[in-house]
Amino acid sequence: MSNANAALAQAQPGSVHRFGFILGCALLGLFLFSGCQSGSQAPAEEAAPVYEEGQSISMEGTLIDTRCYPLNKDVNRGMDHERPEPEGFVKACATACAMQGFPVAILRGGETDGEVWVLMTVPAVLADYMAEQIRVKGTVRSTGVLIPERVETLSDGEWLTIL
Prior knowledge:
By secondary structure, the chain is of the alpha+beta class. It contains three helices and eight strands.
């Protein structure tokens, strides 16, 4: 039996499916957010930086969930979200989405027109920090997808490591 098959055989029931679901959601988030980037084209001298796979970068922004943000970018940057009926307005929706495994992302450079970078991590780990100002250092997986090495939150003027 190969190492990969042995690892799958020893995995807890559902863990392989859960990982596949999270990875699938991250890729879906990348696809959805490719259309959420700023719609205006900047002049050549102000073009957005180009990132290469494997490049180490740092960025600051707001921690958002990828399930609700695309539905209403004006409202769904915070903790409480506007959802389609019958749900309507949902308190602490961002935390609930992260706890359910929906990918989280960092929104940087603006409130509704900023760059969105999906963080390839277990979303529940960051659920308590949704809608907060964060700083992420990580490795570019592809444009719009970041594998975080360190995540910090701004608390009382100081950056505290949370991941």
